[in-house]
Amino acid sequence: MSTLTRLATAAMMAAGLSLGAGATGALASSGDGPHLKQPNWSFNGLFGGYDEAQLRRGWEVYSGVCKSCHPLDYMHYRNLEQIGYTADEVKEIAASFDVPDGPDEWGEMYTRPATPMDPIAHPYENDAIAKLANGGVVPPNLSVMARARDGGADYIYSLLLGYADEVPEYVLEADPNFSLPPGKSFNHYFPGHAISMPQQLFEGILEYSDGSTPSAEQMALDVTSFLQWAAEPELEDRKALGRYTLLFLIVLTGLLYAYKREIWKDAH
Ligand code: HEC
C-alpha cells in the first residue's frame, strides 16, 4: 500500500467513524433473541438523508396509531413544516388536537383546539392515568427514542414487527419457567420479551393519503424514519459537514504527499 492510499484510508476511517456515531448502530441483537432487522434506511451512509414523503407518512402513522398512548415531547406542530407540510396544513393538523388551557376569567381550566405554536398534545392527563390504562407502565416519550435505545432505528423497527402469538422454543430452552404475565405480549426484541405494548401494526389499519399500501412493514419503516427525524432533525447537516471534512482531508493528504515527495526527491 502506498503512503498516499494509507493516509487516505486513515482519513476516511476517521471521518467515517465520526459520522457513524449517533446514527443507527448495527447492534446485533437484544439478549437471546433473533438479530435485529436492518432495513435499508434512507438516512444511512455518507450521502443518506430523509425522504420527506416518508416522514409525512410516518407522521400519519404516529398520529393515527401511536398518539393515543405515546407523547412526543419537545416537538411542536409547527415543526411539521420541516417535513413538507404547508403552514395551512399544519394549522389544520394542530386544530384537530385538543389541548388544555386556562384558567379563564371564571378561574376554570378548559380545552381548546391546538395551534401550530403548541407542543404536540399529550395523550394522557398525567402519568397515573397513563399507567392505569397500560397495565402499570407509562408509555415512554417517543421523540428521542431513536437515540435512547441501543440499535436505534433498527431496534424500533424490529420491535414494532417483533411480536409472536406463542412463546418460541428458543426462549423456553433458555428458561423453561418462562411464562408471559397476564396483559403482556411476547416480543422477540424487547429486553425480557414481555412487553406492555400490544402489537400495533396490522396491514390496513390506516389509509395513507399518498396512496401507499399500508403493510405492517411499510408503516414500521415510515413511523421509525419519522421518529429518527424527530430525534435527530439535524442529521443531514451533520452528514454534509462530514462530506466536506472528508473532501478536505483527502485534498490535504494529496498536498502533504506531493510536498513530501518534493522535499525528499534529491535524497533518493
Ligand atoms: C395502547 C397504547 C400504545 C400504543 C397505541 C402504542 N404503544 Fe408503544 N408502548 C406502550 C407501552 C405501555 C410501552 C411500554 C412497554 C413496556 O415497558 O413494557 C410502549 C413502549 C414503546 C417503545 C419502547 C420500547 C422499549 O424499549 O422500552 C417504543 C419504541 C414504542 N412503544 C413505539 C410505539 C410506536 C412507534 C407506536 C405506534 C405505531 C406505539 N408504540 C403505539 C403503549 C402503546
UniProtKB/TrEMBL annotation:
It is found in: Membrane. The keyword Kinase does not apply. Residues 1-23 form the signal peptide. Pfam families: Cytochrom_C1. Keywords: Heme, Iron, Membrane, Metal-binding, Signal, Transmembrane, Transmembrane helix. One of its GO terms (cellular component) is membrane. Its main location: membrane. InterPro entries: Cyt_c-like_dom_sf (IPR036909), Cyt_c1 (IPR002326). One of its GO terms (molecular function) is metal ion binding. Binds 1 heme c group covalently per subunit. The chain crosses the membrane at residues 241-259. The keyword Transmembrane applies. Its cofactor is heme c. Heme c binds at residues 66, 69-70, 197. This is Cytochrome c1.
